[in-house]
Amino acid sequence: MMVDAEETLIVRPLAEADLDPIAALQEASIMVLGLATYGRRKAEAWARVGYQVRHDLLAQGTFFVAERGVRLLGVGGWSADSLDHRVAWLRYLFVHPDAIGQGVGRRLVEAAEASARAAGRGQLRVWSSLNAVGFYRALGYRSIRRAAVPLSAEIDLDYVLMTRS
Fold first, then answer.
1. Which residue among 55, 76, 92, 159 is least enclosed by CB atoms within 10 Å?
2. What is this structure's pTM?
3. What does 90-120 look like in DSSP terms, one character per residue?
């Protein structure tokens, strides 16, 4: 289903009522956008993580959702680094596959960056999925290194650590 580009995109703080819908949005995003990069087995394992962590988001940082009308199109935010008071970690950025290329991800990153800077955290980092590296590069992030993050005892997911000041 295509979204109506004429409707205004609203970016607002994440609410508790958004938690189940964002887990479903995350799964849809991964199973369309991450499938080609990671394959079915890894994509399905990655998609399950959203259902496991969604309730932790409200306590772990500042998160936003993007919507047009009543349709939830994206989620993303940031968490503070526990060791460096200057660093904010962009986290849990997912855009519905139908809304790719419509500025949803960019607007969510801008909201997270502005919020992090307002909290005194001007150094931004993200563990980018391989399929999102180009997106973050277009926003001015640069790659630092690549690493595999375990999703389960049998499955690792490759990510790229990226940063922007």
1. 55
2. 0.90
3. EEEEEE-GGGTTTTHHHHHHHHHHHHHHHTT
